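Please go through the protein record below and explain what the tokens say about the fold. Record follows.
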Amino acid sequence: MLRFDKLLQFVPQEFTEPLTRKSFLQLTGKGLAAGLVGGLAASCKSAQTTAGQDSPGAQPTMTAPNGQTVPKTPPTSPPAQVPAGAEEPIKLEAWKSDADRQSGPTPTPLPPDQRVGYALVGLGHLTLEELLPAFGQCKKSKPVALVSGSPEKMRKVARQYGIKPENCYSYQTYDQLKDNPEVQVIYIVLPNSMHAEYTIRGAQAGKHILCEKPMANTSAECQAMIDACKKANRKLMVAYRIQYEPYNRHVRQLVREKKFGNVKMIEAFNCQSSANPEHWRHKKALAGGGALPDIGIYCLNTLRFVLGEEPTEVFGYQYSTPGNPLFKEVEEVMSWQMRFPNGVIANCATHYNTHESRRYRVLCERGWINMDPAFSYTGQQMKTSRADGKLGRKEDIEMEHKNQFATEMDHFSECVLKDLPPYTPGEEGLQDHRIMEAIYQSAKEGRPVKLPAVAKKDAFRGPEPKLD
């Protein structure tokens, strides 16, 4: 029921004084009164719509718990091309102009039940800090088993990563991996002296092997690992992550295409500071050597990768500070030169007792390419320099960073899934050991040591990988 005083506001002013209910009805008649009532009702309904009730043609809204009215937008799905193949990326609607750096393809992870299962042997720094987290970015690989000498640590890690208790092994039960169909690859992440034994036993258990660098302690051990995997018809890959990292691969492309002319000289350094003399890296029986096989190998292997050639001569110099307990058994510093068939001279150094420096520079006829850092797990940065008439051009090259460990594991998984040879097989690791042994010999004898000439480009690598 509408109140009389409310109705009066719709009556012209000249009729409202003095106006009683009776005179109002007499003046307006029932029709006018009904019209006024209808108009007032419509006005009230409009007010209700404003308060959040949808009306035809209006923007739909909803009321939030705090009373605020917010719009409701019909869901939309932008156009996309959806290929049938599991490894073909979905192509979304374009939105960037070519003025900005373009995005890569959308990720194409395989369903979990189609990914290659890995058993990780050793739960030290690399496994816990890098490898297990990297599986979160893998598209073709998954962790399914662990091997450790510490049951308490292994139980915790297994819970963290959803690994079944029955898929946790000790070094004594390692050979039982042969009975686990979930495991297709064994990733060896142990002290260097243990690589040969656990690679050979893993191959005999019928599993493919991904082995951390350096491949072993000696070239003879490397050969035994290669022979064992071939006999078992299992694949063997050495985890040279730099060869799968986008920035370093781009350096290789610039060098191979001679974007700055022919390479003339390269300088490379990989140095870090150590603190624990009891760590296995400072025990020669476990590590095989000091700075050279642990971190100097990155200089050696990366330059071979970039050039695609093998050195024909090395000259090394080795030193350890007397009385320093860190270097009672292994070298503190190794400095060496490598001569390549095309005339390139590489000056390299590695140190276990300086603030970290992980860089190299490729000096060419018409410019240079600088990577600093180059060998780190993350954060690669590339700069180039060249002349342009009266101008000097220095450029910072930016690329998409990718997890190096996920990339290398997925490459090996691709090899397992499609029966392909890996890009960095055991022969690649064996060649590095031959060169390192020549460097040690040179440092000991104080003279250059020649190496067998290798005419073929990329002689020890597998087919070029297709990396996303």
Summary: DSSP finds eleven helices and 19 strands in the chain. The domain at 112-239 is CATH 3.40.50.720 (Rossmann fold). Confidence is low (pLDDT under 50) at residues 31-37, 40-52. The first helix runs from residue 4 to 7.
